Amino acid sequence: MKKRLDVLICGGGACLSSHSQDVKNKFIEVLKAKGLTDEINLVETGCMGPCEMGPVMVVYPDGSFYVQLTENDVEPIVEEHFLKGRPYQKKLWAAPEARKIVEEKRQVPFFEKQQKVVLALCGKIDPESVDEYIANRGYEALGKVVTEMTPEAVIEEMLKSGQRGRGGAGFPTGLKWKFGKASEGKQKYIVCNADEGDPGAFMDRAVLEGDPHSVIEGMAIAAYSIGADKGFVYCRAEYPLAIKRLEAALKQARAMGLLGKNIFESGFSFDIEVRMGAGAFVCGEETALMASIEGKRGQPRPKPPFPAQKGLWGHPTVINNVETLAAIRHIILNGADWYASIGTEKSKGTKVFALSGKVVNTGLVEVPMGITLRELLYDIGGGIPNGKKFKAVQTGGPSGGCIPAAHMDTPLDYESLTKLGAIMGSGGVIVLDEDTCMVNVAKFFLEFSVEESCGQCAPCRIGLKQMHDLLEKICEGKGKMEDLDLLESLAHTIKATSLCGLGQTAPNPVLSTMKYFRDEYEAHIKEQRCPAGVCKDLISYVVDESKCIGCTACARTCPVSAISGAPKQKHRIDPSICTRCGSCIVKCPVKAIYIGPGAVKREVESKKLHLEKTL
Amino acid sequence: MECQELHIPDNPQYRELKRIIEEYRNVPGPLIQVLNRAQRIFGYLPREVQLYVSRELNVPLSEVYGVVTFYNFFKTEPVGKHIVNVCLGTACHVKGAQRVVDALANELKVEIGQTSQDGFYTLSTARCFGACGLAPAMMIDDEVYGRLTPGKAVEVIKEFQKNETNQN
Ligand SMILES: Cc1cc2nc3c(=O)[nH]c(=O)nc-3n(C[C@H](O)[C@H](O)[C@H](O)COP(=O)(O)O)c2cc1C
Ligand code: FES
């Protein structure tokens, strides 16, 4: 029976952690108490995107979008909206002016520029119900493929669609399948890469949590095309909910005969097993991933042979990313021409980006390839919070680079990003504002790569460490201008000589920040100054005594008791105890605390002073 | 290492592990999966457990040890009752995650990777839980806490410990 209202409450990871579950349970309780369970369909969905506003909820058919819900909002929403048909204004997504309350999901600017393909059902269906998936044309593509199409025809369709892998490298999916099909072998495998190791990327997680069947269907279609009968999903251990939902979906698919022997009576058999990772970034690299599935240390090996020739246990194996696989069914259902009509000449289709960092609307967005960074950041992302100035975005994680303000109108596609030295990667877009130190960011990524290097090859194991130490020196104010040349030459050597993609790309964040933000490097070296006020050795916190009112708020919040001063007296921060945690700046009601020069600079200056005196 | 007779205590933990190993016996490449489950049972992977897994799966101990030390997820030291895992991923980093870790380390009087004196918390760090929209974020066991400040993080762990102590 069609119910009067569909109420979709987000059960994505971010909303769960802002207690959407409590809100949902309260709804269940209230709906039951009021005898409304037959009229109102309450569904928990996967991530809807605007995580910052969570917990969020949409009510159809009117499309009201509720945000930041708490248990206390449940009664009034049921009373006002569900019973009297008047959306509860207090928690609707509000435009800047209080009166201009946006009532419909379509009109929320966050959604206007988006085109949802991969995420179409995330947030719309109950991810634990195969029936809802099927009601949305789920498994129709698989049925069509195995009963009406030859493997060659499927591959041809994929080639024509122009789809490129979303795992980072952007290799054409159709071509990869073609190689997989051409490889000799009775046993073949299809692997879904759900390792999602790039910090700042969470689209694969959202797809697995919100629409797991689409990944299963994509894998089955891939398997049919290359002639595999067994698949693995390699999912990182940090995503327990994704694993749980995937396992549940697999069980349902098996029960309905959508996996297993003789699918759709076509003679095609296929099943999937989930393998959990154990916290190693390098295992996202395909050859390391295979070693890990085999139960070994996740160490990459040189290519060729490519996995499509010699993969898991030596058998031909096709590895695709979650987002790549989730789009397959749409390509089959709507046709390659439709897919190829979206995006740019060389980058087809839609791409999911994960917006995070210093941006108003954090969360997942799906847009046609080729949209500009400016549209992504301002029209969809809502700009930079707290009136701060935009500095750059970082894309592609530890293998990527940054795009500064001057290139805001760059279209987001594989080629344009690569040309700027910032890669598409998995689609994590981290926004940096004026308070971010670019040298610190570069050091941060190298620290990451040093820790995650598997240690097999010397350029990556030793070279990256050297680069990291140089950056550390610079951040401590002890760098020299020659260090910049050394950094650059190390970077090029490591890129050219490393064994796998990790080492080959790890220097990118350094090269890219040096290219666009050389002035910041030079300020650290020549002036012992961190322009963004981040590097601890180059800053100190100082109380402006003319502003201090002696309220003691800073002294009370200081975690290391570095601030002295009696009530109503001027306070002072002891720089030798202060850890520059920043708590006091936030607490001070009169903004009397500012960031001054650090110990290194003070030392240099006092030496200079001393020298001048003695001369 | 010399071939030593392994004395395995007959307790529920080992019986559970034995059952799991049987479950995986015919699965190809079972080592990581078994270690994962073993860690869930024991909280960490002491030497005896590694030896036991090695013997039962017929995989050389060196290989077991190699795998255990390769992956961040596996712990060879006992951990506290609860694990506080602070994300140091990029999104969290640019939103001040380091300050959050520093504040927690200071509060618990431990370094990263260590366990508090009372054995209640182990402080650990991670790279992104995919909760970047809530950065900076941390997890206590499986629960994510987002939009932290150093002060708020300290409050959260105090509150959490208080709640649990009160329950008992
Ligand atoms: C260091 C490193 C880490 C990687 N991590 C991931 C990852 O987390 N997820 C992913 O899908 N691909 C990752 N890749 C890319 C994979 O090796 C592989 O190209 C991809 O899974 C292929 O799928 P696609 O063709 O669908 O993009 C990584 C590559 C490297 C070099
Ligand atoms: S970077 Fe912290 S959760 Fe993603």
Could you give a quick summary of the protein structure above?
The complex is a heterodimer of chains A (615) and B (168). Chain A is globular. Chain A contains 25 helices and 18 strands.
Measured between the Cα atoms of the first and last residue of chain B, the distance is: 45 Å
- Bulk shape of chain A: globular
User: Per CATH, what is the topology of the largest domain in chain B?
Assistant: Glutaredoxin
Provide the CATH superfamily of the largest domain in chain A: NADH-ubiquinone oxidoreductase 51kDa subunit
C-alpha termini separation of chain A: 94 Å
Query: Residue ranges of chain B: pLDDT <50 for 5 or more in a row?
Result: none
Structural class of chain B: alpha+beta
* Sheet with most strands of chain B: 4 strands, mixed
Described by strand count, sense and barrel closure, the largest sheet of chain A is:
5 strands, mixed
The CATH C-level name of the largest domain in chain B is Alpha Beta
Subunit arrangement of the protein: heterodimer
Q: Tell me the name of the CATH class of the largest domain in chain A.
A: Alpha Beta
Q: What is the CATH architecture term of the largest domain in chain A?
A: 3-Layer(aba) Sandwich
What characteristic shape of chain B results from the CA principal axes? elongated
Number of helix segments of chain B? 7
Domains counted in the coordinates of chain B: how many?
2
Q: Strand tally of chain B, please? A: 4
State which percent range the strand residues of chain B make up.
Answer: 5-15%
